[in-house]
Amino acid sequence: MFILFCIITTKLTAQTWIDVTQQYIQNPSFEDYTACPQSNSAYPGSMWIDSVVGWYAPTQGTSDYFNACNTFLNGVPSNWIGSNVPSFDGIGYCGFLSYSLEPPNYSMWSEYIQSTLIKPLKSNTSYRFTMRIKRANGFNFAVQNIGANFSENANTGFSGTKPYNLIPTVLNTSGFLTDTLGWTLVSGQFIATGNENYLTIGWFGDTISSDFIFFIPPDIDTTNGDSLFLTETYYLVDSLTLSELIFDIENFNVNIITPNGDGKNDYLDFSVYDLKKLSFTVYNRWGNKVFNSDNAQLKWNGKNNDGKQLSDGTYFYLLNATLESGKQITKHQSITILY
Questions:
Q1: CB-based contacts of 291, cutoff 8 Å, min separation 6
Q2: CB of 286 closer than 8 Å to CB of 315
Q3: Which of 119, 104, 111, 216 lies closest to 160 in space, CA to CA?
């Protein structure tokens, strides 16, 4: 569990990231299936991606499924991509063409995977989403704009295989995804609106012209000397996680406050916690009580009970809180006021 103490915002609180993957995302490492994949997907009759429990292809793009239950083309770790392509964890992963120009008309082709969330995300709540991405060896270019989109609607109304022109909720920020050996972490934080019911993963862009880097030299047209590129690249995805940021007074450990009105660390905010009762008392270095409150919604900005700003210096506080669950929390330590 990762604990974060905010020191660069208007209010000071203790916050904790908790793993809520299993509460929201079905089959997050693609382990479970209804049928072992026997080959790559083919629309419409052999969409093996649809055999992944909780997941499916939202368009006619033929995303693929790989699992150790298969020992040939779509196995793990050996498959049509290579003889040693292990998963990040477990025995399964999914694959998709992020972008391709398909002959004879060289129309755009992008593939996606999608899932219905177990329940909607919470309104006005901070989440952190992560996934592992690997570029498949043997394809001649790489892209950057691999991401994830949390949406209210399923986005399945798109016909054909054109890329989604959507703004992703989480987007890769580590540059071109070129690694074919390791799994690259793609992660991001966002605040949910509360209407998110679906998760879609793939390439998010409206043109490839600004999102590609080539690895394999082009063929040369012997008639005119033009360079001929096969524009196609394929990615694997594994190990999805979702964490929720909660306010956690049990880890409250704030020791500085700067109530100078600059919008940074101006006050201690107890209103964000699920408190039934609160007793908060501040003492100066001589042990004299300079402030106390029983307000469970308290936002203390360094003033005494007469409303006057306390002087710079070190003080001590005693915090007794009762959670709605009835659990008692006691904290006592120093706190410094700076202007």
A1: 280, 281, 282, 300, 303, 304, 305, 310
A2: no
A3: 111
Q: Please tell me whether the overall predicted TM-score, pTM, comes out greater than 0.90 for this model.
A: no
Q: What sections of the chain are H helices per DSSP?
A: 21-24
Nearest Cα to 170, choosing from 241, 66, 99, 98? 241
Cβ atoms of 296 and 277 within 8 Å: the answer is yes
Q: What is the DSSP string of 190-249?
A: EE--S---EEEEEE--S-STTS-EE-SPPEE-TTT--EE---EEEEEEEEEEEEEEEE-G
How far is it, in rounded angstroms, from Cα 303 to Cα 18? 34
Where does 11-77 show beta strands of DSSP type E?
11-12, 14-19, 55-56, 64-67
How far apart, in whole angstroms, are the C-alpha atoms of residue 132 and residue 57?
A: 19
Distance CA 93, CA 86 (A): 9
- Other beta carbons within 10 angstroms of residue 54's beta carbon come to 16
78-95 confidence digits (pLDDT tens)? 999 999 999 999 999 999
Query: Kind of pairing, strands 2-5 and 14-19?
Result: antiparallel
Determine the Cα–Cα distance for residues 79 and 66; give it in Å rounded to an integer.
Answer: 8
Q: Which helix (H) or strand (E) holds 189?
A: strand 184-191
Per residue in 132-188, pLDDT tens? 999 998 887 889 999 999 999 997 766 677 778 788 999 999 999 999 999 999 999
Could you give the domains of the chain? Answer: 16-245 (2.60.120.260), 253-337 (2.60.40)
- The count of other CB atoms within 10 Å of the CB of residue 237 is 23
* Apex 99 CA angle, 93 and 103, nearest 5: 120
Tokens standing for residue 247: 């306010």
Whole-angstrom distance, CA of residue 269 vs CA of residue 338? 17
| Site of tokens 């009580």 | 289
